[in-house]
Design brief:
Layout (H helix, E strand, L loop, with lengths): L6 H17 L14 H19 L2 H15 L7 H10 L5 H6 L4 H11 L4 H8 L1
Helix pairs in contact: 1-2, 1-6, 1-7, 3-4, 3-6
């Protein structure tokens, strides 16, 4: 089965994930400040936007986004996309958005996944920007 999620939707997640990572040092483990400062509100707003966007995708699109992430990080090869998709569908237990946002290199994985699947990220991002 070929990738069916619109590349523009993937590009939207890539762009927003990069913005989120730039605003919040999401992978900084020394993050003990829960003071609720101004930046935290902005970060939470971006987090909520990305989560809302992913949650609004249908189940097939969400599974394809996860499978694409796995292809991008090298867990599956492009020719094994069907297997990655089936695994994503069968192993879904929690929020797909939270799972994906828990990936430290989400934007890179999705971009690499598109590239490995033969989809031009520049064209997809150009349609979003």
């Amino acid at each position: 089965m070929p990738m069916e999620i619109a590349p523009e939707k993937v590009a939207h997640v890539i762009i927003r994930a990069r913005q989120y990572d730039a605003k919040v040092d999401a992978w900084n483990t020394d993050n003990d400040d829960d003071g609720g400062g101004e930046e935290t509100g902005v970060d939470q707003g971006l987090h909520d936007e990305i989560t809302g966007f992913i949650d609004a995708l249908n189940d097939d699109e969400q599974a394809q986004l996860v499978a694409l992430c796995w292809v991008g990080r090298g867990t599956f090869d492009p020719e094994d996309f069907d297997e990655a998709l089936e695994t994503a569908q069968n192993e879904r237990v929690n929020s797909v958005a939270e799972y994906l946002l828990g990936q430290p290199l989400l934007a890179d994985y999705l971009e690499e996944g598109l590239d490995r699947m033969g989809v031009s990220i520049e064209d997809a991002e150009g349609d979003v920007l």
